[in-house]
Amino acid sequence: MLLLILAAVLGCTAIAMGAYAEHGLKVRIDDEAFRSVMTAVRYHQVHAVTLLALALAMLTPLNPMLVFRLGLSGGLFVLGTLMFSGSIYAAFIMDAKSVLKITPAGGMCLMVAWLSLIWAALAAGPSSVAE
């Protein structure tokens, strides 16, 4: 249930950040910075939907190993999104460019989250992977 709540929070904040970027931030920053913020919004949205799919999948009866691996993947998606998108938001909204040092680590965390889905699929068993 926690991942479902986190998915909803990420989804809501993705919409709020997109609206703020388009209607409030765009006039305060240059075009390159705006593109960076919109990239953060896009990643934020995609990973909110991904987390929602994971959370919904976990509502069905699954083997405990699969639940653990999907939960781990979900946690990595949350952490990666906070680090990647959050650092870009902070850099341009609060004019704190030094936090951009976190952005690549957030991207790596998101990649590991996606790779962990492969690991989760393997826990589902060979017949499930082929379907």
Q: How many distinct helices?
A: 5
What overall geometry do the principal axes of the alpha carbons give? elongated
- Report the radius of gyration as a whole number of Å: 16 Å
Extract low-pLDDT stretches.
none
Average pLDDT, rounded to a whole number, is 93
N-to-C CA distance = 26 Å
Let me know the number of strands: 0
**Helix content class:** over 70%
Overall number of domains: 1
**Beta content:** under 5%
Return the string of H and E elements.
HHHHH
Structural class: mainly alpha
Q: What is the makeup of the main sheet? A: none
Write up this protein.
The protein is mostly helical. It has one domain (2-123). It has helices at residues 2-25, 31-57, 64-93, 103-124, 126-130. The radius of gyration is 16 Å and the shape is elongated.
Attribute tags:
5 helices; 131 residues; membrane; DUF423; mainly alpha
Indicate the topology.
Blueprint: H1 2-25, H2 31-57, H3 64-93, H4 103-124, H5 126-130
Helix pairs in contact: 1-2, 1-3, 2-3, 3-4
Summarize the structure in short:
Belongs to the UPF0382 family. Its main location: membrane. With 131 residues, this protein is an all-alpha fold.
